[in-house]
């Protein structure tokens, strides 16, 4: 059994409750949930005909896109740092 | 009207087709879609009772969490780089 302490919190995303469990603080989990809620509402206002499932998939697509772009920038910064240290 | 050239591609995520439009290359869009598809399938194997909509929301939650953690690391790296340059 893991000794790592897990936190549990209930969040509301797009009118539905979810129990989130993780090693992060509950405030971090709530912040993440509120960002997903915001993004889904934004996506819904742009595409009013989409159902919740498609809205959530497209929100996930946007989030993964943002992640991959940031990862590229992170790797550039890492390279720059390495060059400065060498 | 925007002069920026937009690309359009159809992707398959968790058995459903989506038309994705953006300035990114179609290969980037397909890569993002395949990551979301993988994450939804992984989430589904861990939580077989969840419906598609909840799976997609939790996938979005994980993606936003990953983004925020990477952003923290990015900001640390930026700070380190700034200190080295000063």
Topology:
Two copies of one chain form a homodimer.
Chain A: E1 7-13, E2 16-22, H1 26-46, H2 52-85
Antiparallel strand pairs in A: 1-2
Helix pairs in contact in A: 1-2
What does this structure look like?
Chains A, B: Homodimer. Interacts with FtsZ. Chains A, B: Keywords: Cell cycle, Cell division, Cytoplasm, Septation. Chains A, B: It is found in: Cytoplasm. Chains A, B: This is Cell division protein ZapA. The structure is a homodimer of 86-residue chains. Chain A is α+β, with helices and mostly antiparallel strands and 86 residues long. Chain A has one domain. In chain A, 64% of the residues lie in helices and 16% in strands. The first copy, chain A, is flat and about 50 Å long. The relative contact order of chain A is 0.10. The interface between A and B is large, with 41 and 41 residues.
């Amino acid at each position: 059994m893991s000794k790592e302490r897990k936190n549990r919190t209930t969040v509301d995303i797009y009118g539905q409750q979810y129990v989130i469990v993780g090693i992060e603080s509950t405030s971090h989990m709530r912040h993440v949930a509120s960002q997903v809620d915001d993004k889904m509402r934004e996506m819904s206002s742009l595409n009013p005909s989409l159902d919740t499932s498609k809205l959530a998939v497209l929100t996930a697509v946007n989030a993964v896109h943002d992640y991959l772009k940031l990862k590229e920038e992170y790797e550039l910064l890492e390279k720059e740092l390495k060059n400065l240290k060498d």
